[in-house]
From TrEMBL:
InterPro entries: Kgd4/YMR-31. Residues 18-47, 59-99 are annotated as: Disordered. It is found in: Mitochondrion. This is Uncharacterized protein. One of its GO terms (biological process) is 2-oxoglutarate metabolic process. Residues 72-81 have a biased composition (Low complexity). The lineage of its organism: Eukaryota, Fungi, Dikarya, Basidiomycota, Ustilaginomycotina. Belongs to the alpha-ketoglutarate dehydrogenase component 4 family. Keywords: Mitochondrion. It holds the Pfam family Kgd4-YMR31.
Length: 130
């Protein structure tokens, strides 16, 4: 069987896709070696930029919603000097889960799921009512 020369030449060359993807591992190594020092985002609030080392400590220490950890020494001094009118007392209890609150906060229609709704969720909508 004779092959045409063009088909034979094409068969010798390996297929080379026309699209190329960058090597992600090489990009990450360059990124980490270029600037390993952490710095605040350019659009970060001025409080974070001013005391970025404290922000890093708070961020790595645990629950980020604890009000005492969110206040820096300079921030708490300015809040107390300005009269700090408003909201919760400094001894307010902090809860980690909505179910630790009294039932009036978590026994609401938006948080309670009926059996029909749960069946729809678990089936991915396949057992929907007609």
């Amino acid at each position: 069987m004779l092959l045409r020369p063009t088909l034979r030449l094409l068969a010798q060359q390996a297929y080379k896709p026309s699209i190329r993807f960058p090597d992600r591992s090489q990009h990450q190594q360059q990124q980490h070696s270029a600037g390993s020092e952490l710095h605040p985002h350019p659009a970060a609030p001025p409080e974070i930029v001013k005391d970025f080392s404290h922000f890093q400590e708070v961020f790595s220490s645990g629950p980020h919603f604890h009000p005492e950890k969110l206040q820096s020494a300079s921030g708490s001094a300015s809040a107390s000097s300005s009269g700090g009118g408003g909201g919760a007392s400094s001894g307010a209890e902090v809860v980690e889960d909505v179910h630790d609150l009294p039932p009036r906060f978590w026994k609401t229609s938006s948080l309670l799921i009926e059996e029909d709704e749960m069946e729809l969720i678990m089936s991915g909508g396949a057992s929907s009512r007609a």
